[in-house]
Every structure is written in C-alpha cells, then in structure tokens.
Amino acid sequence: MADAAHRIFELAEHALSRPFPLRVRAWDGSEAGPSGTPVLVFRRRRALRRLLWRPGELGLARGWVAGDLAVDGDLYEALDRLSGLLWERDEPDPAAAGGMVRTARRVAERLGDPASYRLVREALTLAGAGLPPAPPPEEVRRRTGIAHTKRRDKAAIAHHYDVGNDFYALLLGPSMVYSCAVWPDEDTTLEAAQYAKLDLVCRKLSLREGQRLLDVGCGWGSMVLHAAEHYGVRATGITLSVEQAAFARKRVAEAGLTGRVDIRVQDYRDVPDGPYDAISSIGMAEHVGSERYLEYARTLYGLLRPGGRLLNHQIGRRPMRDEEAYRIDEFIDRYVFPDGELAPVGVTVARLEEAGFEVRDVEALREHYARTLRAWVANLEAHWNAAARATSVGKARVWQLYMAASALSFERNRIGVNQVLAVRTDTGGASGMPRTRSGWLS
Question: At the top level of its lineage, which domain of life is listed (predicted)?
C-alpha cells in the first residue's frame, strides 16, 4: 500500500483527462501532485471507496461530511482550484447554493475505456473490498410524496433549521439573521451589516407607525423585531421551524414587544388575517419550488391591501441555455436545503407580475452575500468545538463546506441574490409610490 497518494493522483488525472489541481496526501502518509497548493487529504481508504462508488460531487461531499476527506490549507483556494471539475465552464451553473454539478457520468465514461483497466483494478485494490460505505447520518434519507406539499415543506425546513439555536447563535452572531447582509464599507462589522440590511428592507417597504407587516419565513425574529422597535409597526412573523419560533418568541418577550409582535408556526398558504400593509420575504422563496411559485406570489398578493408593498429577497441562479435540463444540486439537496430550488431573477419577476404585482425595483446584492458567507465561515471556524458540540461534527462540516462553496459561487457570478420591490396597485392602477428611488428610500 506504499505510495497510495501517487496512485490516487494518477487515477484522478487519467479519469478527468486534465491535470489535477491539488496535491494529494493519503492515509499512509504519502503525497503526490503539485507543490504550493492546498492538499486534499484522504484520511482513510474509505474516502477512495466513496469516490469510486459515486464519482463526482456526492462522493466528495460524503467523504467530507464523514471526515474521510479533509483539506490541509486554504479551503477557499482548494474549492476554487477544483471549480473547473465541479462547475461547468461553458454554461451558467444550474445548481443551488453550493454550485456543484454532477461529474459522475463524465468520469464513469472515461474510466470505461480499455486503457483504464489497470488503474481501476489498482484503485479497487487500494480502496479495499466491500459494499459502498453508508452515507453519513447527516444526509437526508429517502423522501416520499410530492415535493412542496405542506407536510414535506415542513420536514425540509426542520432538517435545515431545527439543528439547534445554540449552533446558529455561534454561526450568525448576535443579529441572528440568516440572509445576505448589506456592507456599506470595508470596516463594517457583520452585526452592523445585518442591521443595515434590515433597515434597507424597512425603508423600501416605507413602513410607518401602526401599519401591519407580515414577515414570511421570519427565522429567529430579527426582521419583525427591527420593524416593530424602529418603525412602530404591528408585525406578524411566520416560520415552519418550531425551534426558530420558540427562540423568536423569547426575544420578543425580552424586548417588551409581545403586544405588537406575533410569532406563528404557520405555512404561508394558511395565513388567514390579511390584508397587510407590507410583506417581507427574506431568504424564504428559495424553498417554495418552481411548480408552486405562482401560487406563492398570488397568495402574497392576496394578503396585501391595494397600495401595499412586497419586498422579496431571494437567491437566483444564472439562466441556462436549456432550462429543462436544470437539476437541483445533489450535495445541497441531500445535506443542506432539501427540495430547495433556484430560478433566474427574470423568472421571479415574471411570476410576481403574473400574480398581479407591479415590480418597481430590483437590486442585486451578489457581492454582499459572498462577504456575508465568509463572515459566517469565520464565525464557525472560530467557535468550531462549541459548534460541533451544539449539533454534530458532521453537521458543522456540512455548513462549512456549503457556505465556503457558496461564497465562491457568488464571487464567480454563478449565483446571485436580489431584492425585488413590488406593489399591489389599486383598481385604477395607482401605486402610491414616489417617482424616484430616493423618494421611496427616504
């Protein structure tokens, strides 16, 4: 088994038909590949078995989550160097927040040629005999039924958000905001940047004292608390996460806002008490699904009074030449956001207008999200042991990988995030909005 790294490196280059961009270190201490790069560490032979059984992103992800694979060096640089293998170069990426695409078919075809027989036989010997290793327990097991029913949506939300409020407190910091911050300058802290984002949403909605605000997907309550405290609104926040709701209610009580802020565990399709003066939906619409998006838009339209505004803050992917070829990213779907789907911003705007809204403004915040994600990764790594105790080592590794990969996806313009401001005009077509952006941001 001596020099396992050399054989792994040779197999990788042959299978991929291109130079492998990282140095490799194997479980026997051997190393191979270019110097001066991050090192992809095969801690156990099981890591190679995972990749042989599932070449591509899922095998890599399972190895990472299980701790069979690691990176010695800068994780961002390692993922960036691997981007040519994990991300398509000639077409905008169809994947979700992590940005990875399937490579298994391409690798399998390459390994099937006669010249590869020796390498494959050696790799199987090196990896050890046996059935495929079981997926790490953090992977979502088989799902049944139709996607985006109320029951399945609730289960998907629980998988991602009900992993422990203590974990998220370490990850997000005091703001407890789990969406893109707005960074006014280089010296802004994460907490100040999240405050700036919440305030930007309130100003775009033109919130005024006594108005009713509905926050769809309210998370840990930061938006409704900000709007009630600084703008005097009566706010309702809805979430499908039981843990989020409990945390948010505690914050509301501690702030003395129980009479003005209501937190509910409720599906957006079940809100009975419109009309509202304004609706915010921040980082929630990614969970709706393309088949349900028009229903989502129509539901929110029906919950607004004439002249009421919607602020829809949503991650979007780049368009594809063949939209029907879009597939949800395997790693993201199995480990991070089950059933999550991204759409190009143009599709989002079209669906909102089809539902009856007039779209008045679209603001791209792509670079802001990249910086936000890097701040979250820094928080996670700075509190690694506590974060792992609060949930599990595997969960912490999932979040580390998906947030680091997502930061690169935003930086490379594979995905973006946009705030879409829309209004329900009255029967005569009047929006009640100032003519200029400076007017409605005042």
Answer: Bacteria
Q: 327 — alpha (psi -120 to 50), left (phi > 0) or beta?
A: beta
Distant-in-sequence, close-in-space partners of 371: CB < 8 Å, separation ≥ 6: 181, 183, 193
Q: Tens digits of per-residue pLDDT, 217-270? A: 999 999 999 999 999 999 999 999 999 999 999 999 999 999 999 999 999 999
d(CA 373, CA 183): 12
Q: How far apart are CA 84 and CA 322, in angstroms?
A: 21
Sequence-distant (6+) residues with CB within 8 A of 220 are 165, 168, 176, 177, 178, 244, 247, 248, 251
Same domain for 291 and 341? yes
90 and 190 both lie in a single domain = no
Span of 37-41, 130-134, 382-386 with lowest mean pLDDT = 130-134
> What does pLDDT average to over the chain?
89
End position of a domain, from candidates 112, 127, 142: 127
* Distance from C-alpha of 315 to C-alpha of 343, rounded to nearest angstrom: 8
| Pair 113, 219 in one domain | no
Three-point CA angle 376, 382, 388, nearest 5°: 85
Can you tell me the distance from the alpha carbon of 26 to that of 6, in angstroms, rounded to the nearest whole number? Answer: 9
Check whether residue 96 and residue 157 sit in a common domain: no
Contact of 38 with 75, CB cutoff 8 Å: yes
- Read off the pLDDT band of 115 (50, 70, 90): low
| CB-CB contact of 178 with 168 (8 Å) | yes
139 occurs within a structural domain: no
With H, G, I as helix, E, B as strand and everything else as coil, classify residue 129.
Answer: coil
pLDDT in tens, 371-394: 999 999 999 999 999 999 999 999
- Give CA 74 to chain center in angstroms: 21
For 156-180, what is the mean pLDDT? 92
Give the DSSP H/E element, type plus range, for residue 212.
strand 212-216
Contacts of residue 308, defined as CB under 8 A and 6 or more positions apart, other chains included, come to 275, 276, 277, 278, 279, 423, 424
d(CA 66, CA 58): 12
3-state secondary structure of 310: strand
d(CA 400, CA 395): 9
Q: Is residue 136 part of a domain?
A: no
pLDDT tens column, 76-98: 999 999 886 765 433 434 333 33
How confident is the model over 324-363, as pLDDT tens digits?
667 778 888 899 988 889 999 999 999 999 999 999 999 9
Q: Are residues 192 and 107 in the same domain?
A: no
